[in-house]
Amino acid sequence: KIMPLADEITVYPAHGAGSACGKNMMKETVDTLGNQKKMNYALNPDLTREEFIKQVTDGLLPPPQYFAQNVALNKSGYQSIEKVLESGVVPLSLADFTTLIEDESVLLLDTRNKTEFVEGHVPGSIFIGLDGTFAPWVGALIPDLQQKIVFIAQPGTEEEVVTRLARVGFDNTLGYLKGGFSTWKEAGNDVATINSISPAEFAEQYGNWTNDQILDVRKPTEFLSHHVLNSTNLPLDYINSNMNKLNREEPYLLFCNSGYRSVIAASILMARGFRGLTDVREGFQGISQTSIPLSNYTCPTEIPQEKLDSALAAVM
Questions:
Q1: Residues 201 and 283 in one domain
Q2: DSSP β-bridge partners for residue 195
Q3: Percentage of residues in the chain with pLDDT exceeding 70?
Q4: Using the 8-state DSSP alphabet, how is residue 277 labeled?
Q5: Taking the CA of residue 73 as centre, how many other CA atoms within 13 Å lie in the half-sphere pointing to its CB?
Q6: Closest-CA residue to 193 (of 255, 127, 144, 109)
């Protein structure tokens, strides 16, 4: 039905790069059908129906758990966005904020950018930056849609934070720290940081780390495609269920593709009592430009399904 259509037809994707709803998706928000016919691996007129299904589904990770919860929520109904904003976009004094985060049932989310978080954050807070794939990672990492959330944001972004939380079903936001992180810091409260090094510094230290200590938190498909030799794949998607494989007394070095996911992972581990953590700025993109030994590159679409299944079984 698609191939006979005119090449000049405009195509608007339903999902973008990084979405769990597909694989190898372009980051562009608009294209022509003609270009898709040339570029899109799945639009091959020689494929049979079975081959097409295999092409577009092989290598896909299981859907995040919040997908099913959101489906149920859509069926049962939910609060209006106006009500969610009214209850969630609430400026909290430092005293009220402190009281709330001392409650173990409340999650403290820091939505600033990764550099700000690395340089200083409230101890125990979880980083998921608004400037990255915020909502999908919230949905993938926070298992309970009813989770009570208090957050720290870049001043002026508070309404956007609550709105984007609500888009994946998290409506139980209690408010944000008025004045942002500076309010916490200027009051003389404890501030946590993450040790951060450049890819070049990692190259100098590479021989000092064991393969169990070098944690690549990218997806299994990314790892199998191209990775640092003598590293361990601990996908961020499954970090909560694999934390028992790590030793709180051991130092660990973390990286992802660009540095966003590894800071999320580091924040989760720190909140669970891990202290000797080092994050590699620029992630694999930067590492691949150094002398650090890498595996041979394999196109993600050419990774054998049995190899991917084995990798998934090891982390799920």
A1: yes
A2: 278
A3: 89
A4: E
A5: 18
A6: 127
Q: Which residues face 152 on adjacent strands?
A: 110
Give the DSSP letter string of 27-74.
S-S-EEHHHHHHH-TT--TT--HHHHHHHHHTTPPPPPHHHHHHHHHH
**Cβ atoms 292, 202 nearer than 8 A:** yes
CB 151 within 8 A of CB 108: yes
Q: What is the pLDDT of residue 62?
A: 60
Give the number of domains in the chain: 3
In the structure encoding, which two tokens stand for residue 236, read together?
């961020």
What values do phi and psi take at 91, rounded to 5? -70, 130
Of the three residues 186, 206, 222, the one that is the final residue of a domain is 186
pTM surpassing 0.85?
no
Give the length of the chain.
Answer: 316
d(CA 115, CA 148): 26
CA distance 116 to 111: 10
Residues 273-300, buried b or exposed e (16+ Cβ, 10 A)? ebeebbbbbbbbebbbebebeeeeeeeb
Domain range enclosing 311: 195-315
pLDDT, tens only, 201-251: 999 999 999 999 999 999 999 999 999 999 999 999 999 999 999 999 999
Please name the residues in contact with 80: beta carbons below 8 A apart, sequence gap of 6 or more: none
SS (H, E, C) 287-311: HCCCCCCECCCCCHHHCCHHHHHHH
- Please tell me whether residues 228 and 284 are part of one structural domain: yes
- Each residue of 135-156: pLDDT tens digit? 999 999 999 999 999 999 999 9
